[in-house]
Amino acid sequence: MSKTLYRKYRPNTFSEVIGQEHIKITLENEILNDKISHAYLFSGPRGIGKTTIARILAKSVNCTNRKDFEPCNECENCISVINGNNLDLIEIDAASNRGINEIRELREMVRYSPSKNKYKIFIIDEVHMLTVEAFNALLKTLEEPPKHVIFILATTEFHKLPLTIISRCQKFDFKVIPIEKLKTHLKDVCVKENIKVDNDIIEKIARRSGGYARDALSILGQILSLSENNEVNSDTASLILPKSDFESITHLVDDIISQKFDFAIKVLDSLVSDGVNLNYFTEELINYIRKVILVKMSGVSEKYLWDVDKNIEEKIIEQSQKLDLKIWYGILKEFFSVFNELNNDRFKQLPLEMAIVSIKNKFFDNADYESKVISFKKEEVIKPITKKQSFIESSIKESNDENDIVFKETKNNKNINIEDITKAWPQLLINLKDCNHSLSAFVKSGHPICLENNKLTIGFQFKFHLDRIMSFKQVIEDTLSGIVGTKVFIDGDIDKDYEENRKKIIKDIYTDTSMEDNNNLNNLLDNFGGELV
User: Quick check: pTM over 0.85?
Assistant: First the structure.
């Protein structure tokens, strides 16, 4: 009987494991230095290598011909582990052996020395399934096992484990596999299977798997089983992979943003005509809008956009800026509510059409729509930034409050002086804070130094703050220009007399502030971080 791909290509050495570098390096060093722990806890999602690394570790510590930290996979001990008949490797499925009686039997086995190997190893999979009584029975043995025993506990639900168990183990957190590494692995498997597969199919498999190696290999195995003449094309793969892509999703979302709801309905009609699986499409649509919301809220790219192409990443960033967060949340909620209703064979797209109509009625058919949607000129489209930058530092063109001001250049710019800037400074901090709290905090750490030909120099104490601010020069210029009514350019410098100048600036502004306006005074002092003396 032929093996499935995920069994056939299960790694046999640490070097063959995809990802999990932080775990491999630690275990390799422990093996090299002969500092093996008595208990390990592997936690993380399914299908990313927990049991695989446990078996590799079991082979390595008992290998009679080990090469540094890698098992030889040729000696009697290694072969018996690979074949599943090693008497000193006991694998227990806690899902079906979760009671106290099973753990008592385990405790009896622990007492006996290994039959052939140096260590007797117990791998307990899905350990979170054990009962409370079973955990209590395991606890003492886990804390002080004999020197010849190693426990390896694996779980997909770490939060269900008692703290008493966790504290007695060396814990490792497994992570989903990066898409690029997964794609490389899938291509290697295809080469070994002598089957040619289009790169776009590999891309779809890797992204569809969500970063889980076992899922990716299972999907690939299904597709390869359909191959003819050792080649797989898009038509063949579509029999396994649902037909859906981000292009239709981005068009649909664009139509909603621009209030072209009739076009949005037409997108759905075209999907049905093309035979697209609407359940899968809606699942991807929900995940797409979820990413838009997360980018809108936190601005972090790598965490939320790791599994999308560069052009889709840029589109998500652009679209996230065009609607208020409340509207995005409402849109997500509408589509999520109809996800389980897409089972009517006669009116397949009806639930999605109803969701679009509901979105139109709830969020766009009202007078204050203009205050919720951000109008973009062609020259104002946000340029995408690299993943090394935080999206929270991207150019912010959004204004959700009547006090927010976005500068629009006028033909008649006027000259201003440093006093005008000083008076406008508190309002600048407020406007920036309403748009982006982090940006306001960085600006707050600086203060105006001088103004020449409408070019303002801002002084900072630390170069870190200066570099951050200059990354968002355009945003600050636009906001400040809108307050003073003319175009202002900014520059930055390190202020050698930072503390002295900062006290003077607070004093100058205090002098121009009405004694009766205590609220404004308090806001001013709060913004500058000073105190009244």
Answer: no
